Amino acid sequence: MFKGFLKHVNNIITESDIIFEILDARYPEETRNYNLERKIRKLGKKLILIINKADLVEKEVLEKQKEELIKKTKLRIIFVSAKKKEGINLIRKEIGMAKKQQTLTVGIIGYPNTGKSTLINSITGTGKGKVATSKKAGLTRGLQRIKISEGIYLLDSPGIIPQKKEESDLFLVNSKNINQIKDIEATAFRIIKELGIEKITNYFKIKNVTDEEELLIEIAKKQNLLKKGGKPDSQKAARYLLEKYHRTEIK
Length: 251
Ligand SMILES: Nc1nc2c(ncn2[C@@H]2O[C@H](COP(=O)(O)OP(=O)(O)OP(=O)(O)O)[C@@H](O)[C@H]2O)c(=O)[nH]1
Ligand SMILES: [Mg+2]
Description:
By secondary structure, the chain is α/β, with parallel strands linked by helices. The protein contains ten helices and six strands, in the order αβαβαβαβαββααααα. Helix 8 runs parallel beside helix 9 and helix 9 (about 210-225) crosses helix 10. The longest helix has 14 residues, at about 1-15.
């Protein structure tokens, strides 16, 4: 399966004239793929960073991110909300400026679930949507070429995950679903670390917890998630916590 992905990636880079890398505004750094960026640079293709889901981040945080990104990179950066169709005109303008020959192909890459397909639908502007989107990561499979106007094509691609990423890091940014996670407890520990124990104890109204393991046991007790003998089941508690996180019930 991974080999298949790599082939798509290489194809998308060679076939595109410019490439949009879609990042999640909540975790721009965690969803950047430096390997792919290097590949794109080597092939001399133009890369633009699109920070999507800006509607999920507060304005001040967004401004701060913008500052940090600009310090770090010379790449053009565009903030958008594909879902709310905000900033889409900036993207259309960029595409218009890039069209110098008869045909222009724009490649869309990014982690699973960053909103690549949603963005394509917003750019094409058709109400119904030309490509399928989903809450679950890993929807788009092969490459899809979508014509947006005469001589201009967008290439949708499956989400691409760097080979060395931990599954818990991918879960954190919604690029993996719970069903794709092998080590539920380790992933729960990662999420607890990210959110901070206090936020979770407040949410569940639990007191006197000092570490992650204790926290899972207390959640199990509170939610009545028990093993056969009646002992708290921290595995079940971990899954329960991940589901809550995935539905953004604990923020
Ligand atoms: N709030 C918000 N949600 C968005 C935005 N863009 C996409 N989404 C949601 O994010 C989820 C994933 O969107 P997709 O467009 O399917 O993501 P993708 O990158 O194509 O995912 P794969 O094909 O699995 O790689 C869907 O539930 C979208 O509705 C946005 O700008 N704001
Ligand atoms: Mg998709």
